[in-house]
Amino acid sequence: MTKKTINLKQNRKGLTLIELLTSIAVIVAIGSIVAGIITSSLRGSNKANTTEAIRQNGNYTLSQISKNIEYAQVFNGLSESGDEGTYVTSCQYSTLTPPAGPIAVKTSYRYIKITTFNNATVEYECTMLTTPPTFKVNEVDIFDTNSVTLVACSITCTQTNETDVPIIGIGFTLGPTSQNGLVENSTPAITFQTSITMRNYAK
Fold this sequence. Notes:
- It is built from one helix and nine strands; from the N terminus they run αβββββββββ.
- The chain is of the alpha+beta class.
- It has one domain.
- It has one helix at 17-70; strands at 74-79, 105-109, 111-115, 121-127, 134-137, 140-141, 148-159, 167-176, 190-197.
- The protein is elongated and about 95 Å long.
- The longest helix has 54 residues, at 17-70.
- The strands form two sheets. It has a five-stranded antiparallel β-sheet, with no helix packed on it. It has a four-stranded antiparallel β-sheet with strand order 2-7-8-9, covered by helices on one side.
């Protein structure tokens, strides 16, 4: 009786330790790339939304202030201190007339007061002496500090000579709110400004 020796070849399929570590490294690298792409996309979207919110807030506010001043029934004047008796309805102008003509003089103020057609007194106050600055209407902040941050503001009056109607300049710069280092803080501040000529101006 012949004995037959049967050799069984066992095919063992598996990963060595090096192959396993290499696979893990590749997965981690791919995951990092995907996470970076997603994070970058979210930051771009968030930044765009923040910028648009600032623009809408600033444009709307500037439009409302412009309309109130332009169509005011009475121009009560401008003041640096806001105290009664300090408001002037004619800002500084040049008393000299060079060969090229009168020189326009621009003067900065903190307060401007008007009376609307509803007989309501409206006073705007721009204060750069505080940190951050404040821009108020009748002693109430114009901007919601939960939505935007006021970086700067200005109220100016430009007049060329005594007979001219003063041109009121309103300007402010808005930035994102502080979010403890979140991406919104990388959004650049936006400046809004306009010049207004009052339709019912009378000294």
